[in-house]
Amino acid sequence: MTEVVIIGGGPGGYEAALVAAQLGAKVQLVSDDAMGGATVLTDCVPSKTLIATAESITTTSESGELGVKLAGVAATANQVSSDLLQINQRIKSLALAQSSDITARLSAENIKLVAGRARIAGAGVVQVGENELKFDVLLIATGARPRVMPEIKPDGELILDWQQLYDLTELPPKLIVIGSGVTGAEFASAYNALGSDVTLISSRDRVLPSEDPDAAAALEKVFARRGMKVINNARAASVVNTGSGVEVKLASGEVIVGTHALVAIGSLPNTDQLGLETIGVKTTATGHIEVDRVSRTSVRNVYAAGDCTGILPLASVAAMQGRIAMYHALGDAVSPLDLQTVSSNVFTDPEIASVGVTQRQIDSGEVTARTMSLSLAGNARAKMQGQTDGFVKLFSNPDSGVILGGVVVARNASELIYPISIAVEQRLTTDQLAHTFTVYPSLTGSIAEAARRLHRVNPGAEQ
Ligand SMILES: Cc1cc2nc3c(=O)[nH]c(=O)nc-3n(C[C@H](O)[C@H](O)[C@H](O)COP(=O)(O)OP(=O)(O)OC[C@H]3O[C@@H](n4cnc5c(N)ncnc54)[C@H](O)[C@@H]3O)c2cc1C
Fold first, then answer.
1. Residue identifier of the C-alpha nearest atom 26 of ligand 1
2. CA 38 to ligand 1 center in whole angstroms
3. Contact 16/325 with Cβ under 8 angstroms?
4. What's the whole-model pTM score?
5. Are the C-beta atoms of residues 141 and 297 closer than 8 Å to each other?
């Protein structure tokens, strides 16, 4: 029986454990935190639970024009308030329940759960406290932690990282979010909906610099309409707790004053105290573990998955890397990781979902594609719902018509991206997508319509 040891109980680790057990290995899963890892306990699950509340507030407060009244008055943002203590209690109990479900599932599959901090002690041996765990196959899935800088350091009181936010019992009246990547933008969007006065500081010329530029521009417009202040091209140099609030000093010398600051300036891989050097596992300059597309590290029978590899920091990718590692290590059929087919979503309001090639690849000439973008303002269902901010964009191969990628900006873009993901994964053409029935009225109707228009557009005339 192959002895598999897995370090890390996040999706990279626990999904791999389930596959290894299914394939008949003896599995030991070591984690220094409850099962589910940062994904379930502090990052993905808590933030998306918070965002579910924020969504309800926004939908209610913007439903005045649909004829919704609150206590006899047309619904507006001023009439809907939030109870952060209750929201955070719900978030924590939901995260713990999710963790318990995962623990129960792993135990039911006879996976041995080992609590503690693991360190590689030598070839074939992992040390956890006094215990030595022997392995034939090792998977490292230790995740990442919030990045801090000496001048921008969370204190857990008024200056917080995203894992500390859930201890707040009252809504921060004036929240400054440092960092406009996915995490910063999501929390800025959510706290703005909950009722905080939010200032978002972006070091680039727009929020979400890695996302589709049209999507980011659409989101900035919505943020401005909802009263959020976005400061672009501004690098935060330091943040201090003044006792009564916070002061964020920008590189320009300007000082922004708030009651609380959220630091969202990226993550660092949990690889520094693992003993990787004892067996020669290679890391990159940023400390991430080097892996290939079947999750192999530089050392035979040692695999790595998830945020500690820095391939693409998503729970779905971590889980897939972990599963692939076990399929490969235990001799099952395996398809290497293909990042072109990964769909991802930014859970702002509206959401931004994307899959496949990007606008940046097309604009730079790296990929040749035809583009069709349709505003949701023309979609019957969106009009009925009072949802007019988003759009659907499709990219297709100019010769074959095969769909290469797409972007959806809409309230529920994370659900709407799926047909485009299927098209990209299965190499469907615009005609195949266009000829598939959609419900009338529906937002997916815009996806089919964009595909139809790609059939008609002459090369050179596309937008
Ligand atoms: C705020 C936020 C929101 C996010 N939202 C989403 C989202 O909506 N969708 C999405 O797909 N992704 C999301 N992500 C990304 C996602 O959370 C990560 O990609 C995912 O957590 C990676 O999983 P993992 O298994 O690599 O690591 P983790 O989930 O971090 O788990 C690693 C575990 O290993 C433990 N560990 C570390 N070192 C050791 C050791 N030496 N011994 C024992 N145990 C150890 C850690 O304590 C941790 O419990 C979000 C991230 C953040 C920060």
1. 306
2. 4
3. yes
4. 0.96
5. no
Q: Is the CB of 8 under 6 A from ligand 1?
A: yes
The 3-state secondary structure of 350-417 reads CEEEEEECCHHHHHCCCCCCEEEEEEHHHCHHHHHHCCCCCEEEEEECCCCCEEEEEEEEECCHHHHC
Local structure of 79: helix, strand or coil: helix
Indicate if the alpha-carbon torsion angle 308, 309, 310, 311 is positive or negative.
Answer: negative
Report the candidate in 282, 286, 285, 281 with the shortest Cα–Cα distance to residue 267.
Answer: 286
Amino acid at 172: P
Q: Which residue has its alpha carbon closest to ligand 1 atom 2?
A: 43
- What is d(CA 48, CA 436) in angstroms, rounded to the nearest whole number? 32
- Cβ-based neighbour number of residue 182 at 10 Å: 22
Q: How far apart are CA 153 and CA 429, in angstroms?
A: 50
For the Cβ of 31 lying below 6 angstroms from any atom of ligand 1, the answer is yes
Cβ–ligand 1 distance for 220 under 6 Å, the answer no
Q: Answer whether 274 contacts ligand 1 (Cβ < 6 A).
A: yes
Task: Say how many Å lie between the CA of residue 96 and the centre of ligand 1.
Answer: 15
Does residue 271 have its Cβ closer than 6 Å to ligand 1?
A: no
Distance in angstroms (rounded) separating the CA atoms of residues 10 and 371: 37
- Our answer on whether the CB atom of 172 is closer than 6 Å to any ligand 1 atom is no
- 3-state DSSP call for residue 19? helix
pLDDT tens readout for residues 43-59: 999 999 999 999 999 99
| Alpha carbon distance 407, 426 (integer Å) | 17
Which pLDDT tens digit goes with each residue over 16-44?
999 999 999 999 999 999 999 999 999 99
- Closest among 195, 198, 224 to 76, alpha carbons compared: 195
Query: By three-state DSSP, how is residue 7 classified?
Result: strand
Return the ligand 1 atom nearest residue 313 CA: 19
Residue 463 pLDDT: 47
d(CA 14, CA 7): 9
Please check whether residue 224 is in contact with residue 202, taking contact to mean a CB–CB distance below 8 angstroms. no
Distance 421 CA to ligand 1 centre (A): 24
